[in-house]
Amino acid sequence: MRLSLPEFRTRGLPGGTDPWDRYAFVRSQVLLDRLDGTITRLVAEKAALDAPEAHRLVRSELDAYINSLYRSVKSHRDARPAVAHLDAAESVPYLLTVVFALHQRVRPYNKYLLWELEHHPLGAPEWAADVLFPQLRRIVADGDPTTQRALFATVERAARQAGHASVLDSWGADIDLLRPTA
């Protein structure tokens, strides 16, 4: 594929062409840059989230994650397991975007998620591949509310530590439904 420089500048970025394709730049190597480092700089910018972008992304995707999670847990409570399962599955992409953005990283394609967690861990033990991946599989498999609540507690703690308490607090008392039960 050939792209003009203006096309390449926006490819894979929010508001640009194919924002879903950003992960393609994460482990890319520039072999030839005839523009005095411009291509290398652009690839590096696409490969990671800067602090303001990560902050914005966490805020928007955290709210979307909470919304899907809330609908799932509420449907479980109301004895609608099939609907709860669909909402649980829908919450996972938002959740993954939040978790990676909290680390200023681009969410990997599903194909590379396990590899990324194993070879480029997110640091804290709760995000380790052998902890996070089984939780994700359980949520996608059946929308288990206990697993969803346990994972939410981890996300809530990390989001609050990263300065996103206002997003969580905007849910008021409704957020209590998402927390693990005693």
Blueprint (SSEs and pairs):
Elements: H1 5-10, H2 38-47, H3 51-77, H4 81-101, H5 110-119, H6 129-142, H7 145-161, H8 165-169
Helix pairs in contact: 3-4, 3-7, 4-6, 6-7
Protein architecture, described:
This protein is mainly alpha-helical and 182 residues long. The protein has helices at 5-10, 38-47, 51-77, 81-101, 110-119, 129-142, 145-161, 165-169. It folds into two domains: 5-47, no CATH class; 51-178. 60% of the residues lie in helices and 0% in strands. Helix 3 (51-77) packs antiparallel against helix 7 and helix 4 (81-101) runs antiparallel to helix 6. It is elongated, with a radius of gyration of 18 Å. The N and C termini lie far apart (55 Å). The mean pLDDT is 95.
Portion of residues within helices? 55-70%
The assigned structural class equals mainly alpha
Query: How many strand units?
Result: 0
**Average pLDDT reading:** 95
Radius of gyration: 18 Å
Portion in beta strands = under 5%
Largest sheet: none
Q: Report low-confidence residues grouped into runs of 5 or more.
A: none
Number of helices: 8
How many domains is the backbone divided into? 2
What order do the SSEs take from the amino end to the carboxyl end, as H and E?
A: HHHHHHHH
Q: What is the overall silhouette?
A: elongated
